[in-house]
Design brief:
The protein is about 60% helix and about 0% strand. With about 425 residues, it is mainly α. Among the domains are: about 180 residues, no CATH class; about 100 residues.
Amino acid sequence: MREHSDDTEDPYDCGNAIIIWLNSVMLEASPTTELLLDCFDFDPVKWASMLIQGNADLQDAFFDYTKMLDLRNWFQTQEAYALEYLGPTQSLNAHHSRSWEVASDLICEEVCRTLHKEHPKSGENVATAITHPEIADILNKGEIFDRVFRVKFYLYFYSKVFSGITAIQKYLRDPEHAGMYFVNGGMYASLSIHLLKVVLRFQYSSEDEHGKQKENDDIDTSNDMGDEDMPSPDDKKALDFAISSLPFYLSNADCNPKLVELARSMLNPKMKEKMLELYEGVEYEEIEQLWEAIDLYLKKEPVTPNDAQPNESQAVAARFRTDKRRRESNDDLEVTGAPALSLSSKRIKVMDALSPTEAGSKTGPDLFALADYNISNAALDDPAFSDGHGIDYLSSDILDRFLETFGPREGAF
């Protein structure tokens, strides 16, 4: 412990031995006052950084991951002893909470890096699959990942208990910590496409065995990853995993044209009938849950080009779409005997009225630029979308004022 915590750069040139033996010996150690005092000087970030330096492959990365979890858990269990031996103000957990968080991120990042490096086509799907809340129960000691993605999941080789997977699950679902490895809706869509193709390939394989003509031949069940990265078409364990896990992945997936196409093919009445006939051993309840999940996914409203303005993110466009529906329901109230214009209609008409080509004055382009900035954000009336001076973007009543001032005469619309 002292050798590792020394500020000098590995004075005895035995850093690897220190790293490896420190973890093994500490787990067997009984707490003493001297040991606990040294624990306060221990630097988890430095230790984790040294731990990953010698990594050669994904297997090494998973080995380091389990060592980090074991040592972190040991430190957490020493809290009561630290308070007893060193006093009520000496909290070991509070002292190291941030440093263990950083150390954990370093190790998780290394796992993700080596996963994507060794499996550039399937690594992203594996990382996404890990985020399933029941993945520890589904994986069958890692065998499923080998079957479905052709990836060895070494975590089971080193960990006595699999509860440790929660650390990397939290990492992958936290954009602040995971950064480029954050699992987003697009990745859930890609994984869902892969798993739906597993289901469809199994059906087609079964039909071929019985000499039946395929239906839905226009549905592409090939995969960009290549057949070498796909499970065997008649692998029932891969099928079970796909059916049982798809509801969660679909619920988090972004709208994707290819996924929509595959999902619709699954709801074909004849397809449903064949699923019940062919998928022996699969619980009927799980198939029902899959159909329900597919139906819910197909009801998702995609962000269309008309919703998204130039330089506007899809997240903002989706928010605009939601707020637009809310405002349009309010705008249904009649004013002066005529229905009020919806916010989207006002938006279009104001932009037309202030178009640089329509307004002949010198202020036309300036007014257009102002309207383009403000009106495109008119629906975003949340205080979080105010500018740096706390000024809210233009609201619906100000759009009315624009129309009264610059719009065409009454009845022109």
